[in-house]
Design goal:
Oligomer: single chain
Radius of gyration: 20 Å
CATH architecture of the largest domain: 3-Layer(aba) Sandwich
Shape: globular
CATH class of the largest domain: Alpha Beta
Bound molecules: iron/sulfur cluster
Helix content: 40-55%
Strand content: 15-25%
Number of strands: 7
Number of helices: 9
Largest sheet: 7 strands, mixed
Distance between the termini: 60 Å
Structural class: alpha/beta
Order of helices and strands: EHHHEEEEHEEHHHHH
Number of domains: 2
CATH topology of the largest domain: Trna Endonuclease, Chain: A, domain 1
């Protein structure tokens, strides 16, 4: 992807895209937003890491709320924390750290966001970053994530899909998946049950069968 500074899209949109393209379009194209308990808790956790500052400890420099961008992915945003570790041989290891509320998720949306941050830092520092850290608020644990070729490929593909969708200005139709949709912060704005044609057909068939059984 070869894009200009004006065409950079929010890095945070990648995690929405990984979760559900419709949710991503509702937030980033239609500018719809609805806060629920999960997003409110996430916001509070992020506010703790939102103030730009630098801290120095023996052998490590910690930068908080660092602005980052990547022209290859076409995204810009903020890194919660970037750790610069000084190695015994004089080299430096760069480690992006992303704070998340809750537990590790069943999909790879957090990993994709972390990987995009690492790609931004790689471009900005002209280096290679092998791993990053996801910090989860529930268990207060750091989880090390290897930035594999597969994760990088997924991140690149999602960034391309994000730009394609953004250029089209089209919001994809909903596909109702109970597990995913019932916990979605945009459920009420999305109306997945009433707008998903396959779900509507499914419910109509169930109703028809119930009526036939009771006849
Ligand atoms: S309710 Fe479901 S289909 Fe609608 S935006 Fe959320 S996850 Fe996507």
């Amino acid at each position: 992807m070869n894009i200009s500074e004006e065409q950079l899209l929010p890095l945070s949109a990648l995690q929405h895209m990984a979760f559900c393209p419709r949710q991503c379009a509702l937030i980033h194209i239609e500018q719809a937003w609805q806060e629920n308990r999960y997003t409110a808790e996430g916001r509070v956790l992020h506010e703790k890491t939102d103030t730009p500052e630098v801290e120095c400890r023996p052998g490590i420099r910690i930068v908080r709320a660092m602005m980052i961008h990547s022209f290859s992915l076409g995204v810009s945003g903020k890194c919660d924390v970037v750790e610069y570790h000084r190695n015994p041989d004089g080299t430096e290891t760069i480690l992006p750290v992303e704070y998340k509320r809750g537990r590790p998720k069943p999909d790879e949306r957090d990993e994709v966001q972390l990987c995009a941050q690492a790609v931004c830092l790689e471009e900005m520092h002209q280096t290679t970053i092998a791993r990053g850290i996801l910090y989860y608020g529930t268990n207060r644990r750091r989880k090390e994530i290897q930035l594999s070729d597969d994760l990088r490929r997924k991140t690149r593909e999602l960034a391309e899909s994000l730009h394609t969708m953004y250029r089209s200005r089209q919001t994809p139709a909903p596909h109702y998946e109970p597990k995913k949709c019932d916990a979605c912060s945009l459920y009420d704005l999305c109306c997945p049950k009433s707008l998903d044609k396959s779900a509507t057909r499914h419910h109509a068939a169930m109703l028809r069968h119930a009526l036939e059984d009771s006849a």
